[in-house]
Amino acid sequence: MAAGTRPWWATGVLYEVYLRSFQDGNGDGIGDLAGLSARADYLAALGIRAVWITPFQPSPMADFGYDVADYCGVDPRYGTLETFDAVLDGLRRRGIGTIVDFVPHHTSDSHPWFREARSSRSSPRRDWYLWRDPAPGGGPPNNWLSQTDGPAWTLDPATGQYYLHSFLPQQPSLNWRNPDVRRALFDAMAFWLDRGVAGFRVDVLQGLLVDPGFRDDPPNPHWREGDPGFMRLDAVNSSNQPDVIEIVAEMRALLAAYPGDPVLIGEIYRPVETLVAYCGTPERGLQMPTNFNLFSTPWRAEAILDLVARYEAALPTGAWPNWVLGNHDIGRIATRIGRAQAAVAMLMLLTLRGTPTLYQGDELGMEDVAVPPDRARDPFARFGPGRGRDPERAPMPWDEGPQAGFSTETPWLPLPPAGRPRSVAAQARDPMSLLSLTRRLIALRNREPALQQGSWTGISAGGGVLVYDRHHAGRTFRVVLNLTAAPARIDVPADGRAVLSTHRIDPPGVSDGSLALAPDEGVLLRL
Ligand code: GLC
Ligand code: CA
Q1: Which of the ligands is closest to the CA of residue 105?
Q2: 53 - beta bridge partners?
Q3: I need a labelling partner for 93 at 20 to 30 A (CA). Which of 164, 245, 257, 457 fits?
Q4: Element (H, E) at 83
Q5: Which residues' Cβ are closer than 6 Å to ligand 1?
Q6: Ligand located closest to 147 CA
Q7: Do 466 and 348 touch, CB atoms closer than 8 A?
Q8: Rounded distance between C-alpha atoms, residue 348 and residue 467, angstroms
Q9: What would the DSSP string read from start to end of 289-325?
Q10: For residue range 387-404, what is the model confidence (pLDDT) as tens digits?
Q11: What is the set of active-site residues?
């Protein structure tokens, strides 16, 4: 694809709205679609191009919506189809697309399809899920593990067979080798596309198919004491089947029938070398196999430079990179790397080559919020220390009023402690806040083709300072990130001019071809 003609999802910034914790609109302590509509101006002021909204379909909430009981509806706790359409319209009027979280890997065990499937071995929907007889002598059919750390199989006593689930037993895996299943889920995608959504974030895409022979997973040689128990096995047979790319091609064919170049984002946890296989070809692959590799890379200049260079080298022709620093499943970036580095991380996310996905609250510097055991909500908290995902799901602190402006009632999860981070209202008044920096940076990015789609060149990583260039049509930006808590000095071309700093309103000057950086400071220069 020629530079200058990149589509909206490549040039714009995406934003993840974790719906339950964004804004409560009806005073029940839980974020909802009306609340999201009420905050549309906030999203517009950020300058983002699209929001991905976490699941809002009817669900018993065993996994807070990632257990869908009806793919074509809205859970009454979140709103109605009308309130969804209002979100869509309100955002569209502000130039923001709406991306739906689509959960095709499993349904809820209360979905009518599963109820029918489990009703008898001869049910016409039996084969919509994955059933196996017990192993000879009893017990689960093979060694596959679910993210509960126990077997990925649960016995259905009434019919005497086990069904497969990669997550909770309440999330039975669909059988994607059954053409009727594919058709039903493609119809559900068409339902949302007909309403005008800008695309999908596809949950657990890498797990849609399993080994047709149900062979055991081998041990994972990289597993270490302290890692989640389910990672003891290398999920080569229970997940990660190469033919998933054919399903992706079918989804892309469906999307291609709609205007506006809808996007397909796939949730995939893989190292960059194997992640890029999901890019396929530009017409048939994922536009965005999510690149989560910054989660697992040490926050050191050499390690990050090496990661970016390996990713850039691995991307097939025509494929477009993407970067993510946080989501609702992983501890907050400001906690992982320390508060002081949050602004440097934001500058990095918004200046690497590729589409950035910003997780709600990271623009405020939100940290993990300690959740006392009696207020824990995530069922995965039961499976071991650090497994619960409540801390990164705390509600947004909007202002200094009751319940931080999130709700009129006690929120479903504890709010962040007062002032940590400062609220949206307080940060909006302070030109040096992380929120103001994020707004300035996105505005600059939206004006500068070099930052949106320029080439990326790694320059150096010495002394803990990461340096790279972005270049397009005769314009070059240099990004200088001090990833350490010590001051640093770095050589830069004498004609370089700083345009933005994480630490000062007036960016520092370049004198004698060198730039002095404060601890934890990032600077953007024009060369
Ligand atoms: C994805 C979601 C996560 C959910 C899981 C099962 O990883 O991001 O929140 O628990 O899928 O649907
Ligand atoms: Ca609500």
Answers
A1: 1
A2: 17, 100
A3: 257
A4: helix 81-93
A5: 63, 66, 103, 167, 203-204, 267, 328-329
A6: 1
A7: yes
A8: 10
A9: E---HHHHS-SSHHHHHHHHHHHHHHSPTT---EEES
A10: 999 999 999 999 999 999
A11: 203, 267
